[in-house]
Each structure stands twice: as structure tokens, then as C-alpha cells.
Protein 1
Amino acid sequence: MNKDQFLCPNDGTPMRRDLRPVTLTYKGENLTFDLAGWYCDKCGESVHVGRDLKDSDRMLNRLKARTDGLLSPEEIRRIRRRLGLSQAEAGELVGGGPRAFQKYEAGDLLPSRAISSALTLLNRDPGGLEILKTTRTRLGRAS
């Protein structure tokens, strides 16, 4: 057996790499998606590693955002680009720090209600961005 193969923890049967539907539930809402993993055809057991777990975490964040009324990764990216900001600039002006928007847009980090609200307002009125820039500059000079 090669290092890239798993044995079923239940019965020792060789498992096979496959995509299978998985359903996540959060606050009574469901999201079904195909998840890569090692699957036992005999008993149905599954083993998920590395990238599989990251994909599952991202889908759970997507479900939480949808259920809790937060912006999706795609909406965050669209608004940031519409405002003409790099990910680092958005993190500095809107909040979260220089790598936050990279994580929001990848789906690795769920945006807070404050970040979602700020982006929603800026999407509606991009002129608010100048207020943030002016405030940042003024506060930067005061320190």
C-alpha cells in the first residue's frame, strides 16, 4: 500500500479517494456540497485530511455568512474591487489588518457584522471611503 492510501478505521478495507455529497447544518439551515476525501465502499466511513478539511471549513463559513446575513467572499471581493482598494488597503481602512481581506475573500475567515455593514454602506455610498481615508490620515498625524 502506498503512503497516499488509507485503510478504513472500522474494518481495515482499503479506502478510495472520491467526491461525495456532505450536508452541513447551522442554525437549522443546510448546505450540501461535494467533499473530497477517502471513503470506504464497504461501511461508508470517511477520512478527510488537509485540503479536504480546509474546503469543509470554507463551506461552513459560507453557510454561516448566509444564515447570519453577512457578506459572502465573492461579495466582499466585488465591493473591494469596486472601491479600487487592494486587499491590504481595505484591511487598513475598513478594519481587520493587512491580511484580513485575503482571508475573507478566500472564505478562510468569516467577516464580522461590523465589516459586513461597513462594506455594505461603502458599496451604497463609495464617497464614504474618503471619510475613512481622511480620518486615517488625521489620526496617523496625531500619533
Protein 2
Amino acid sequence: MIPVTSFAGKTVAVFGLGGSGLASCHALKAGGAEVVAADDNAENVAKAAQAGFITADLRNVSWANFAALVLAPGVPLTHPVPHWSVLKAREAGVEVIGDIELFCRERRRHAPDAPFVAITGTNGKSTTTALIAHLTKVAGYDTQMGGNIGTAILSLEPPRMGRVHVIEMSSYQIDLTPSLDPSVGILLNVSEDHIDRHGTITHYAAVKERLVAGVQAGGTSIVGVDDGYCRDVADRLDRAGKNVVRISVKNPLASGIYFEHGNIVRASGGARSEVAALGGIGSLRGLHNAQNAACAAAAALAMGISQDVLQNGLRSFPGLAHRMEQVGRRGNVLFVNDSKGTNADATAHALSSFADIFWIAGGKPKAGGITSLTGFFPRIRKAYLIGEAAQEFSGTLGTAPHEISQTLDVAVEHAARDAEASGHTDAVVLLSPACASFDQYRNFEIRGAKFRELVQALPGVKPVV
């Protein structure tokens, strides 16, 4: 745990008592603050009370003594309307911040030079975060990984030299971190997402930009420049005098790091050199993972990690569960769990990574369905449709080979049988649903775990090493 000493002797309101909220309560108390905990969910309030915290309905208390409101990132700050607790704080002139802001203040107080890598982007944040954490561990750092990837930042060990914090940040978390100042900041990409919480894509992109714009003096801002929003960000950072490393997986760069012919290449001053090779690394298959790996490589190089250590780390990266996870192989057939592919854009990355695909798709459909994926249909040898979306997806697939399997167990059985019988040397049974899981599973993790269990129960399936 990281004791939050910056509010010692003061009273702090904490609203939103899930994992990060409760961690904030404990960290503030450990640092000498008095905490008043609140939530719209009575069960969460009861848990906080059982943990020994003062709880209250913040509608009915005086805000005069509150030094800050620590808000959980899931609670609306601006859109579609500010949460009532935010309005109360503003009326009282109380600052509204999040748990990562508390971390930043502690780092500046106690270890301002301790390495702090922060990662954001519309897509690829979790894989890039996990990959950087893996690389720093391979390089011998005491590595602390958390934030949006799952572990509340204040539950980690405190900042100190030789210890690196690798933190995934959502736009919601950035919005609550006004003094965000990583030593290495990464903005992977920006595309339309979470507009309900930011109003416009322009505002959403501006929030993302804060992460790389706030990089501390002497640090490195790493920006993927394969979309227009991020190209503009990189140009603005240049004009502001920041140390910017541009990343592209679509085009060579005169200065920066790019992906070409399976290699990560660094260009500077007219010279170019190969930094690392991605060929044959199954956990980093696909152009989207090339971007993740190139950004992670740039972060590693900025931290002084050698190219040999970088290459070894890339090769040994196991990947993330439910994100292009290779769960088994039987003969010529590879089984891949991409349950995190909960919309068409995410599934496009998976479909672009293979040629002979036996595709399991469906669930609770999202707007637009799979119409944007028609360009990938020639790669699909057969589709196996499950859940509420089955009929809709069947209509979109048209004459492309498919069946309505309805349930995941039937889909796995039939896809495995057909893939093996196809004779394709690189046949892939791919779960990438392009749908939410909520019609049949509580979340994508449970859906992916069920797929893994079904695959591993097939006769003759061996784990991928």
C-alpha cells in the first residue's frame, strides 16, 4: 500500500467504494487523513463501514471541512451530467481528484525521480501495459503494475528508485489526475469511444493528450501517429519542446520508431537500425500488437533497457488472458481466445491476424453489428454464431459459410471438427465475438474462461508453449 501523506491531518471525502475507492480510503487513513466514505450502493457503504471507515450520505453533511473529494473513475465527472457529489464539491470549492492523482502527489513528495510509465489510448492499453511491465521485470526492475488494468494504484508498493510503476490509464482516470507527470507517457491511438462520458471525440482526445503533455521535464512522450488526432498531438508536443518519440506501424518515419517487414526499426538523423524482431512471437501477432510492441520498445529504450534484454522480453511475453490468447493446439489447429473482442473494431484486429479462420462470434450485439468486417470474410472458412446476435450476424454473412450454433460448447465442438478436417496447415479456431457477453455470460472474462475450458477438454489438445 502507498500511504497518502499529502492529506495528513485533513478530512477527505471518498465517493465510489469499489476496489480503487476502498484502496483510496485505506491509503488516506494510513497517511494520517480522516476519511468520510460514500457510495450510491448501500452494499458498498456497508463494506466500508465494516472496514472501520466513517460513512455518510454526502448530500446531508457540511462540505466546509473537506480538503478534497476523491472520486472513483466510474462516476461521471462531466458527461452526460456531473454526478451530484461532483456538483456538491464544486459548490463548496472542494477539488475533485482520483486515486492516481494521490499517487502522483506522493511520488513528487518522496521519490520524484522514480520511474513512472503511464499508458493510454483507445485500443491496446492493457497489452502494452502488461508488455512494458514484463520488459522491466526482465530488465531487473522491481515492477509495480496497476491502474485500469486491474490493481488499484494505491494498493501497490510506494515509489522509490529502482522500482518502476507501470500504470494503465483510462480517459476517466486522466480526467481525475490534474497533475499527471509520468517520466514516460504513452498515447497509443485515438478513435471514437466513451463519447457518452466526454460529450465529443474532440474532448475525449484532449483528455487523452493530457497524459503525454504532462510528462515531467527530461521525460519521454511516446505517441502513435497512425491516426490524425495523435499526429496533431505529437506536433503540439514538439512545439511545446517535449521529447517526442513518434510510433508508426503503417509508414516508415524519418525520426521515430516504426514497424517494417516484421521488425521494429528506429530512425534518427538519416540513420536507421533494427531494434527488435517480432517474427514468430505468437503473443504479439497482428498489426495492432506491432503497435503495442513498438510503443513498449520505445518505453524500454527510454528507460535505458538494452536491445538484447528487450528482444528476450518480447520473445518471452505470454500475452494477456482473453486477448489473442493461444489456449491450445491440436494437430494443424490453433485455438485462440479473443473474448475481449467485444465490438467489431476489436474483432477486426483478430481477423486481420490469421488467414484460415473458423470464427466463433456472437453474444449481445452492439450498434452496427459486423457490417464493418465484410472485408475479412474471405479469410473466414466458416463462422459459428452464438447468442442473441446469431440471426443478425447470419444475415450479414449472407452466403459466407456459417452455422447458427447458439451456444459456445456447440460452436467449439463443431469448429474444432471442421478446422481439423479442412487440411489447412494454419487453421485457427478463433473466439472473437464482436459482441458483449451479457446475454449468456456475466462478463467477457467468464466467456473466455469457458472457451479455454472447452478447448482444453477436447481430446488431444496440447498447451501452446
Protein 3
Amino acid sequence: MNIPEELLYEEESSTLDFKGKQYNFISADDVQKGELLKDILAFANAWRRIDAYILIGIKEIKGSKSEVIGIEDELDDAQLQQFVNSKTQRPVTFHYKTVIIEDKKVGVIHIPVNQRPIYLKNDYGKLKKNVVYIRRGSATDEASPDEVAQMGLSELSPNENIPTLDFEFADAKNHVQLGKVLKLKTIHLSVPKEKEIPDYEERQGFGALQVNISTFNSNRDYYRELVDFYYWFNKARRIGFVIKNSSGVVANNVRIEMDVADSDKKFTFFSADKFSDYPKAHRNFLENIRPLSQQLKDMQQKPDIVIKRFSNKWHIEAKFEKVQPQQTAFTKDFIYFAPDYNCSIELEGKIFADNLPNPLIEKLSIESQVENRNGSLDEIRRMHYEIVLKNKS
């Protein structure tokens, strides 16, 4: 059983769980053994298309590589098989093995895709008979009657009750589909260092009589903000996503997870809220004060695209919630992609939905051409002046 090291960089999900300590099993009571039984059942009933793993002796580190702690006590696969399958109404396919990771013992419970639903024939410990336990993300829950029915239907007629989903890049603002290959042209400006950029000061007078003045609302950082804004304005390109349900079945709780390898750190992804507006030479402190009702509304609205940076990759999640039959749904938010060099990258994506028995696998790609240009303060001021004139015309 080979365990991909990449699993240590992933977060807990419907296909992965980390346990810092070994399960209490040998000489344990029914309640303690029930914890192991519940976890195996939950993964066996999860909506997924790929194998699931419980890694024992690993401490999860969110946003980074998880820590290998190791275990001392080992479990016996044959005893686990007899224990679990004597309690369930149908056999559960799983395997236990001890492997060595970073010179430490790690327990691995490997759970391939099973026929569902699976539940207990009798109460055991705190677990109830006839209840279908299911893994949702990083938590375990009880499946609803509708979900249990859907599991049974998927076994009887697997192609009739599963939505057909497909996703690609999009111009989310204008609701335009852009396909699975995105070709971008960007500009990399060679800008001065921050300490080389002078403070902004207004000038009054005529000709040789002009003098620098400082007013209460003058923005002394205006030039530095202008350089930073146009550096990213030229370098970053906006990206959104679209998903289409071409079936006659509603897709519930739809989300996409994409991983992008970037061990050399040749590009950057960032969210739209980190891209500032045009800098201003004068500060109006009142314009940044929003009504309390608007502030509360903004706090409640969660972005539908989330970006996370791991040590050697980017992780992007896009949420669509419910997608109706024959609907084409666009993300309301978008993100920015900023390459440092010419590059061609691949986004390995998985589509998840509550009524997909397993995630769908898709691949998107971005091809970028980067042009290098001078980004002196005078050049950036000229650039800004031309854009302002264009917007006024």
C-alpha cells in the first residue's frame, strides 16, 4: 500500500482524516471501539469517487504539511475486519496496514468506494442501528432520509439519478464562457523600490515661483500607491469559473476544488478584495465610512472562491451550491492570476456534489505570455494620465 506524500499537504475532507493517536481498540470498551467503527462507516458512506484514507499518527497542520508523530501500538487487520463486518448489514471493504513515513510508524486505514448504504444491525456503544453515518468534509454526520434513498437509487440505476456536470473558465462579470484553455497576455513592469519613490507633495504658483505645499488631506504615499497599483494592474488577469448541469437532475451543494503545482513560485493567485482601487492624491476620510447595516451585510457574505497557498501548490475552491437541470451557473466572485514569466500551468480539478457518488475529475490549463517593460514613476504617471483621460471621454 503506497501512500502519496501529497496527502500530508492536504486538509481533512470526505476522503482524508488525520488521527494524532492510535484508536483505542485492544482491551477497549464498546464506546471506545465505536469511535473507530463510526469513522469507517462514515467514509464508506461518503459521496466520493476516489479512495479514502485515515492516517493514524499524523497531526494536521492547516495550510502546511501535516506533522508525522508516529504510533507505537499497531492494529491487526484480520481483527478489524471481523469486528466491523460482524456489526454491519453488508460487508465493508477496507484494509489496515502500518507504513513507515519519515522513519516513523503510521497506521493507514484504506477505504475504497463501497456499495451503500452501510449501517449497523444492532446498537453498539453510542452508535444506533439502522442509522447511516456519513462523512461531510472534515465532520461526521447522520445521513438524511433523502440521502439514504439517493444512495439506494444510485445503486439500482446509477446513470439516472446522477447529475452531469462540466466546468471551465469564465468572465464572471459579463457571464461569458471562456473554455478549458485560457490564453493570457500580461506585462511585467520593472518598478523602482519603495524607498526610491518620493513622497507626494502638491505644488502651487507659476513657473519658477512654484512651491511645494502640504495640506491636511494630501496623500503622501500617493506615488508609492500608484506604482504598486499599476504593477499589479498590468501583471494580474481576472479569472472566474462556470459550471453547467446538462442533466435532468438537480446537483446539490456543488463545489470545485483545484490544485495547481507551483514549487518554483513562478506565479501568484489572489482574491479580488486584495486588488485596491485607483489611488487618490487626496484622502477623503468620510468616504471610507460605511453604514453599519452595510458592514454587517458584508460580514455575512462569504466569497464563493477561496484561495489557499501550501508549500508547493495553490489550492482553489469555488462554490456553486445548487445547480438546476440544464442551468449554466457562474461564480459571482473572481480571482486574479499574476505570472512572473511565460508559463503553461495545469489546474487539476474535482467536482463535488451531495448527489454525486464520487467527484468528477476535470483539467483546465492557463498559457501566459509575459512582456517586460520599464515601470519608472514618470512612465506610470503618464500611463495613469492616459487612462484617466480615456475614462472621461
Protein 4
Amino acid sequence: MKMYNPPHPGEFIKEVYLEPLEISYRKVADMLKVAPSTFNRLINGQSNISSEMALRLSKTLGRSPESWLIMQNKYNLWQTKKNLNLEKVEKLDIKSRKKHYA
């Protein structure tokens, strides 16, 4: 299923956890055992979720680590698709190559 303009995971964290629960990013950073500046960059979309952060978020906020990484990957892929010109990238013709090795 394609997602249209997926949110950055930090935006998701703000909207689903911080704002509704009225909890500060500093409190969550403390719970994650990361510097407040590190978590602030994440929730402001200035940094990506690493594998380590995915594990921390999973323990503190819930959801699986994989789901955090998938969310980040979908966001990154969407952003790249908007900005990358693939016009000159060539496709490998696999069908004709297979005939040579048969």
C-alpha cells in the first residue's frame, strides 16, 4: 500500500504522544536516556531514527522497533522520490541476459 506524503516519525511522536499526553520532550528524552537536544532534533524532523533509537522508542513509547524504522524508511523514500531524477538511470534487461547463460 502506497502512502501519500508520510509524516516524519518525529511529527508522529509529537502528534500521537507529546501533545495528547501533555508531556514535554525533555521528559521523554530523559526516559529514553538521550540528550534533550537529540530528541528535540528528532521530533523537529532534523534527524532520522537509528536502529538504536528505534529500540529506545519501542521500550518507552511502544510499537515495535521495526515499525519505527519502517516509518522512517517510508518518510525517507517519499522525500527522495520527490527530489531524485531517475531519467538517465538505465534498466538492466534481465530476460535477454538469462538466454546467454542457459
